[in-house]
Amino acid sequence: MRKLAKLFLGFVLLTFSLSAFADMNLTLTQGISGAIPIVINNFSNDDQNITAVINSDLNNSGRFKTVSSSGDAVLKGSVDGNKINFQLFGKDNKPLLSQTVTVRRDNFRLGAHNVSDIVYQTLTGIRGIFSTRIAYILVHNGRYALDVADYDGFNPKPILVSHQPIMSPAWSHDGSKIAYVSFENGNPEIYMSNIASGSRTLISHYKGINGAPAFSPNDRRLALVLSRGSVAKIYIMNLATKALQQITTGNAIDTEPSFAPDGQSILFTSDRGGAPQIYRDDLTSGQVQRMSYNGHYNARSSFSPDGNQIVMIHSVGEGYGIGLQDLQTGAYLTLDSTGDDQSPSFSPNGQMVIFAKKTGVHRQLALVSTDGRIKLALPSDVGEVQEPVWSPFLD
Amino acid sequence: MLKKLLVVGAVAFALAGCSTTGSGADGSNGANGSGIQTSGLGGGYGLTNPNAMVPGANQRYFFDFNQSVVRDSDLPSIKVQAHYLTSHPSATAKLEGNTDIRGSREYNLALGQRRADAVHQTLLLDGASKSQLSTISYGAEKPIATGDSENDYARNRRVDMVYETH
User: Fold this and answer.
1) Which of A90, A101, A263, B154 has the greatest number of CB atoms lying within 10 Å of its CB?
2) 3-state secondary structure of B150
3) What digits encode the pLDDT tens for the residues B43-56?
4) Which residues 67-96 of chain B have a CB within 8 Å of chain A?
5) CA–CA separation, A136 vs A156, rounded Å?
6) What is the ipTM of this complex?
7) How far A351 CA lies from chain B's nearest CA (Å)?
8) What distance in Å separates residue A212's CA from the closest CA in chain B?
9) DSSP-derived 3-state class of residue B118
10) In chain B, whose CA is at the least distance from the CA of A15?
11) Is A8 helix (H, G, I), strand (E, B) or coil?
12) Are A394 and A379 in contact (CB under 8 A)?
């Protein structure tokens, strides 16, 4: 009997996982003229297509352009069992780097991404994001899946599949957990899944809305939104004790909390001024300051990893785009404005923003550099792809 | 009209009741060392019932963009529902708030709740009892129109009043 039940569960999982992910293919749609020309020689003994992965990574970054000769840099390498040995040379064959990456668990794509990270950092001075991941919601045939995939859409794996909506995935800062909203019991409730083990915990199921989870920088607290029979308000939960602290009050909608990197303040969306705009709450003093003044609708904001910029959904009246505000200069930049953009999320190195946009009839993922010059599409072969969130750096 | 809806509803909810057993809060398993595992919901996926009760014309109330004020034109319909509830004290209904599919999903979830609350408040003022009503927001997650016209957006900005059976 027990065996039968197990077998049945296995069957359910299998049928659900078959179409619970999409094949996606990252494509550079707009590059820059100043891209660094780099020669990538085919790695010797490369029966795992490592060279091709590194090629895609560096081209897709927009900062590099692979050329067959006369590059500013040359990359050579070889594969030896689970070791990838590689050497990077600058102009006039000046040796810059000679290193070995060990491939873990036969994940040669990840090994190749590790090489790309090192090459990218050596030549740009900025840490690469090629071995990071993204999480997103895939909606297909009335089925909702919370998927985790490599940054380039490869290796998608469902964390959760449901016939009821799943919303608002949020990574813990240590990269081990994802909190999200699930309607599986009727009401929107907050759960937390351990990515490696798949085990999960019900975090919040108060009456009404349980939404918009966001981890504090040390992952010990979770900002969230509860309506508790009234309007949506922001709370912070101590994850060890489940104790709640109410952060905002009043009759307006307050939602979408997002911690500053130092944990001292949160950004949130509120319509206390009549329409949704971005505000900042200093958690020590309780003082609230309006942050967005550009446009009639600003929402879903989050800080860049260095805390100097915020990204948001932005509208001036017709359609929704992605906006970036520099907190030091006050400068505002529209990164994308195709009419129905949603859910912007910074890459962990602060160089790119991933978001969902409507292309034709489908919602798909797109990436844009924070200077707006580099654009990529990450189209899916099936379904609607929603609410992408970029992982932190994963070691 | 109302009677018929209730009967249809009875079947739909009976079916749903059978199928939504156990939420399986601890999905688990599959340690194949790849780093990411699938977490299942156990057997409790719930049934998507094509015959689920569809609100009648006087049980669906539309809203202006980013607004949660009940329209004057909907007040007579809401009064009819309040009257039904007061004359049927054992009847209960759920108010489901929805928004159009654009903009922020979490803001929309909060906006849908405020719309459901606005209809809730109107029903109470018209004499319905608090114990007969519940609210939920689906935000932008359950659109009835998926197109990109203003008409599609407008159709999604709604509260559905759905009678429950016991």
Assistant:
1) A101
2) helix
3) 323 333 334 445 56
4) none
5) 10
6) 0.92
7) 23
8) 6
9) helix
10) B40
11) helix
12) no
